[in-house]
Request: fold
Amino acid sequence: MRVALFATCLGDAFFAEACADAVRLLRHLGVEPYVPPEQTCCGQPAFNAGYRDDAARMARHTAAVFADAEHVVLPSGSCAAMMRTHYPHLLEGEEGRPDRTWELCHFLVHVLGVDSLGSGLRGVRVAYHHGCHALRGLGVRDEPERLLRRAGAEVRSWETADECCGFGGLFSAKMPEVSAGMADRKLDTLPEADVVTSSDGGCLLQLSGRAARRGSHPPFRHVASLLWQGVAA
Reply:
């Protein structure tokens, strides 16, 4: 199985350790991923801003970079949804094979058939945030929580777990007051937890940044790092 890791812009800039943990997880499960150095941006910021031609140019580049991969795995539901949902229209019939693109937890469950990832999270109370693109764009709902539970974690019930955090890329920059209010609602309903996690770096940046402005808060970690902790502990 030839599997490529697409680190994504936010992963590369803010969650490098989570990208490394995703590689460690895949290796532990018998997959030897490779990371093409030519990878850049999936094109989502340009696409959301209305620059369709620029987004298409980035999509063509990304499709070419990962052309030899049987599967492309991303530690980001947002970028995976961009590739699966919008590349077929942007590439207009060009070879892109968006069906082989997977958010990490989705890949572990549905391609590798992973059922258990150790017990290193035993007793850890986890609050899981469902990013909009992973949940609504890809239908990834049960997979992350299932993997966390199988690693020993106690996934806490969270009233707003599947509500938007307010990041939305350009949305948070163009409508900061509304964006902050959405993040505050998430944080106001946060249950007692030892860690908050998600598969989307943008959501983690949004929630952790807002929480830091409000005072004390639990740590925020990418789900790839938590799942690797479950294996490695």
In short: The longest strand covers residues 71-74.
